[in-house]
Amino acid sequence: MNISLYGLSVWVLPLLIAITFHEAAHGFVAWRLGDNTARQLGRVSFNPLKHIDPFGTVILPGVLLLSHSPFVFGYAKPVPVNFRNLNHPRLDMVWVALAGPATNILLAIATGFAFHLLPLVPAEYAKWVADNLKNSLLINAVLAVFNMLPIPPLDGGRVAVGLLPNFLAYPLARLEPYGMLILIGAIILLPLLGAQLGLNLDVISTILRTLTGYVLSAVLFLTGNG
Fold this sequence. Notes:
Elements: H1 5-32, H2 37-40, H3 54-66, H4 89-114, H5 123-147, H6 155-163, H7 166-173, H8 179-197, H9 203-222
Helix pairs in contact: 1-4, 1-5, 4-5, 4-6, 4-9, 5-9, 6-7
């Protein structure tokens, strides 16, 4: 796969903004709800270098792109939160977890409204700005949907642990150390196995693509681009 400098220039900026705001939102909400761990470590910040994870932000998405994976994903360095410091640990954990995906949805909506400003952009920059906006819309929708999968340590897993009754929450919480391995297996290894067996086992990617499509349609309609 040939990746041009232009291609990088229209993907890197929206990706950095999306992950930086996502992680900073976790830290900010945790701080407002009683835990200042992230703030003390400088993670309530819009500096992308504070949030980039070499494997999750660079290597994993790159490998998926080069292997022509049907769904590309990655992650940033998780914001440290000491849930015991929160005012209401179990409920506030839900709000902290929701802050990231909610911020991505707000960024997607802001991007949708920004499309209406394209006529004001000088002609020589219009395509570059439009491509950045398109990618920002897609990246933020994908991040919001992917992170809401109910598997710890993803945000959706934390929300589920906070809302489910104890007999369901505790076993789910214990999956956290293995969560990323489960996801990689489901998104990469399972479809490869299915291809060898002549079966379509690409279930997670199909669900993610479908839900992302709904989110994109809703944002475009809401922002007058439908």
